[in-house]
Amino acid sequence: MSLWTFWHGETDVKRYVISCSVCQLTKPSQKKAAGLMVPIVPQKPWEYVGVDFVGPLPRTPTGNAYLIVFVDYSTNCVEASAVKEATSQVAAGKFVTDIFARQGTPTYLISDRGSPFVSEFFEHVVSALGSVHRLTTAYQPQTNATERVNRTLKTAIRAYVGDKHASWDRFLPQICFALRTAPRDSTGMTSAMMLYGRELDTPLDLITQPSTAGVDEPGVPYPETLRASLQEAHDHANTALDYSHDRQKRYYDLRHRHATFRVGDLVRVKMHPRSDAQSNFTAKLAPLFEGPLCVSQRLSDVNYRLTWVDSGVDAGVYHVVNMQPDCPVGTIILQNNKKNIYININNTNQVDSKT
Residue ranges of the Integrase catalytic domain (predicted)? Predict the structure, then answer.
């Protein structure tokens, strides 16, 4: 080809090759995963609260088959309840009784996009209480802290129930107590200390602590002591959390790259198909991406709202880890002394010659 044609540079050839629509749908990216860490840094307890359902689990004699879990992002305090159904009515009711009535209104409530959390009823209850409801992006649940707590809860339940799987709801109070009195790796402090300014007494504490009966010890009044201990606990926890977030971000970002898109950019999004033996369909051979879609709104450094190019229908919110730039179909021009040869990638078998 180089004997009778020439091109201005390899850039045109590269653009021609990477714009192949089949390749863009089927070939995996060889780059680092997109999206640097954007940690959530709460300034006070119960400012950010995550919620999620766990289940279905074996139905207990009392009819419970699900867990609903609330987690405070600041103290890592866990509120978990056994419920019969995973519905928006149950989620809204537990939000009112377990969080609002005990801790007040959280500034932000974070959940996944499960059907109980995207209903108008649940959204109405949350907004009526003054909280802002934030949804995690599809296939990117790391934003919701309850995902990690759920693993811990299921591990603890597995250890408690033994072979009596239908008795799991009997042990929830003890498991939650254990979580509230366990020091966090990031702060070295328990949830109880960060919330109440003191550790929760256990039977062992009552046995081992020296008795103070009949002893008058002058000192600072309890309210002032409590205020000082809470302030000290929060200051220590905030310092430790800042260090922990910086460390996590540093290691996370080593395995990821910065990626940004502008409104109007064309992208393709990662697919997550499931195999279907009856249809003779296997996910291993399915396309990896679908598109093109258009960026319609930039919600944050890593989250974007997309629309389908063909129909203009809203496609939802996606994290950059599930997005790839779309290279539009183009034309490469090969030139010689007499004519230009245009090759359109839409039909590589057809070559148009123009003088």
Answer: 41-211
